Amino acid sequence: MDIIYNLGKGGIKDARVFLINSHRTDTFDFEKLQMSFIQTVSDLKRDAMILSLTTHSKEILERKVDVLRKHIPTIAHSAGLAASLSKTESDERPEITLLLNEARLYAIQLGINIESLNTVAKNFRMDVSVIKKAVNMQSPALLSSERSFLQYYKTFDDCYRQSPDKISSGDLGRNVQSQCKTVLKNILDMCISESNKLHLQIADLSELESA
């Protein structure tokens, strides 16, 4: 290529050239450019960069999932600490807000939050409820409020909770930490599944439109 040749003449060796369209990031080499950036930064910057990407290609989504999974122990630890500082005799669940915010981040990062679904529905001139039904989505209702999320969270109580008079605050914190890990892993897996189904649905709809 003339570009690579001219860069070489200018002293830039082994240049990598990307053809991109800033108005259509799903075309040409835009994803390759993003992956090139990801591979050249430090671990901390890499995680932040991956989560900042708006592209929802298969490879980018896999990178996002890796980052989100890596964060689960940290979030669960913070949630367990919050629970250990709460009153054990009450049904207070201070960890819920923290977990719900993290779960909503999953939906945003994997492109299945309500804003993303509305965009898909608008692009294909469909009602968003049709999209949800076609993909059999559960996460929008689950993540819609603290109340609905708490109901889901409590379904794991039998495995991790004991009556308040039989457990210390330290044990409560450790149990809650384990419960939070399980809940977040389950929700992330749910979001991954729904994201994959949504992308298959988008592919089918795109094929129908182009037929």
TrEMBL record:
Q: Which Pfam families match?
A: IIGP
- UniProt GO molecular function: GTP binding
Q: In the UniProt record, which is one GO cellular component term?
A: membrane
Q: Which PANTHER family match?
A: INTERFERON-INDUCIBLE GTPASE (PTHR32341), INTERFERON-INDUCIBLE GTPASE 5 (PTHR32341:SF10)
The identity of this protein, by name, is: Uncharacterized protein
What lineage is on file? Eukaryota, Metazoa, Spiralia, Lophotrochozoa, Mollusca
